[in-house]
Amino acid sequence: MDYARYIVQAGDTIYKISKAYAVEMAQIIQLNHLKHPDRIYAGQVLLLPVLATHEPTDEEIPEPNFTYAMWLYDAYAGKDSELTAVTTYLYQAVLLDRPEFDALLRPIAYDELQHLEKLALALRHLGVDPRYGSLSSGHWVDWRSNFINYTSELCVLLDINIADEAKAHREYLELAQRIPIPEIQCILTEIAADEERHYYLFCQAKQQYCGECAPGPSLPPCSPPPMYTPIETPETPGTPEMPPNLPGPHEGGKG
């Protein structure tokens, strides 16, 4: 196939080009080996997986912020993500098969499922497709079942869950600081508060059931992560506008 050559114009993004030529963003990224798809520049030549005679469509193209979307994809359906958390905790509930662990793990899994929905709506708010996967080194990676933590030993399992929840709490607060869109900041700080609560629940379970268990992997001590505070809307010039005619982060969702 003779690929079309496209010269990047000022203001172009991979998303805008993909919509104009009706191709997938992942195809453009992979074909051009783009390690940083958010850093294309005017004058750069890109190969497009279309015939050289193909003309761009005339439809108006909503402009998402691709960098923000890449960050959210990792939290949404990357290796350490909400989708991984949902499936891991449900697996653990079935595996342990005891009422007390079912009562611990299933409500947390359902919380993570609501987080998944909220992040999907945030991705739509940015104008991208909330498919299950993430971008790694410029390449799209579909979510995989081997991302699930299949550990079966109770105390090791709880240690890993504690570490994962503390990490998620920190990362959501960092994302809320980095993405200057109030609707998305609200979602991220709400999720961070839930992850903090999950952290404490797993800590309590470890103290209750693992007092005499062999130590698990070396992890930070079971101390509270920093408390979060709601983030005020930053007065930053040039805040990206929301694409028109796309659902806002709370439309149609349970959260």
TrEMBL record:
Signal peptide: none annotated. Residues 229-239 have a biased composition (Low complexity). Residues 224-255 are annotated as: Disordered. It comes from the Bacteria. It holds the Pfam family LysM. GO terms for molecular function: metal ion binding; oxidoreductase activity. Residues 4-48 form the LysM domain. This is LysM peptidoglycan-binding domain-containing protein.
